[in-house]
Amino acid sequence: MKYYIVRVCALIAAVLLMQTLFYKFSAATESVYIFSQLGLEPYGRIGIGIVELITAILLLFRKTFLYGAVLGIFIMSGAIFSHVFVIGIEVLDDHGLLFVLALIVFVTCAIVLFIEKDQLFYLIKNKRNLIQKNH
C-alpha cells in the first residue's frame, strides 16, 4: 500500500509540474507577470521551468523519485514564499489556483519524503560516507 501512495503522490506532483511548463516556456501572460514581479523575467522563468522539468522527470522513476521530491520541496517552497510575500495568493484573477497548485505539489512531495524517510536517510548517510572517504 505504501508503494502505491508514494507512486500516486509522485505522479500527481510530476503531472502538475509538467502542466505548468507550457505556460512558462510559451511566455504566457501569467508567467511573464509573475516572473516580472519577482524581477526574474525571462531568465528566471525559463531556468525554473527547466528545473521543474527535471524535477518532474525525476519524480516519474523509482530510482530517482526521492531526488525529485527533494527538488520539488525546494522549488515549491520558493513558489509559496513568493506568493505569500511578493506576488500575492491571487495572481491576475486566478482565485489562488497557482498558489493551491504549488501547495499540492509541496504536500505530495512531502508525503513521498515522509513515507520514504528511511530510504532518504540511507541515501544521505551513504553520500556523507562517500564524501568523507574521498577527503
Write down the secondary-structure element order: HHHHHH
User: How many individual β-strands?
Assistant: 0
Beginning-to-end CA distance, first to last residue: 41 Å
Which stretches of 5+ consecutive residues score pLDDT under 50?
A: none
Any idea what the shape is? globular
What's the pLDDT, averaged over the residues? 92
> What assembly state would you assign to the polypeptide chains in this entry?
single chain
- Gyration radius, to the nearest Å? 16 Å
Helix content: over 70%
Give a quick account of the main beta sheet: strands, pairing sense, barrel closure: none
Name the structural class: mainly alpha
Q: Count of DSSP helices? A: 6
The total tally of domains equals: 1
Notes on the structure:
The chain is an all-alpha fold and 135 residues long. It has one domain (2-134). It is 82% helix and 0% strand. The protein contains 6 helices and no strands. The longest helix is centred in the N-terminal third of the chain and has 24 residues, at 2-25. It is globular, with a radius of gyration of 16 Å. The protein starts with a helix and ends with a helix. The mean pLDDT is 92.
